[in-house]
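Entry 12.
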Amino acid sequence: MRLLAVWLINALALLALPYLLPSIHVASFATALWVAVVLGLINTVIRPVLLLLTLPATLLTLGLFIFVINGLMFLLAAKLLDGFAVDSFMAGIIGSTLYSVISWLLTKLLLSSSKS
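Predicted 3D structure (tokens):
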């Protein structure tokens, strides 16, 4: 049940992005649901490999290169799905950061109170 709730929260976070960053476009709630699934799969399969391969750059930049990797994962999801568009690389970095913050906040607000 929690997995379904987190999935819906991530889709809501994706729907909020175009209002905060006009260079990101999400066509509908159904598109946001698919993007949430694809981002989850990308972050589960591809991201760990990239983190390992770019470990020297990540260490050299004191971890800031992870923002670049997150932006690339966001752009990859936009390339794979119709109805989800990211206009530039910088929009991908900012969008992935905002997406992470919004989904973390929503998860803390909506799911942490249900544990008690």
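Annotation: The helical segments are 2-20, 29-53, 55-60, 65-80, 89-111. Residues 29-53 form the longest helix (25 residues).
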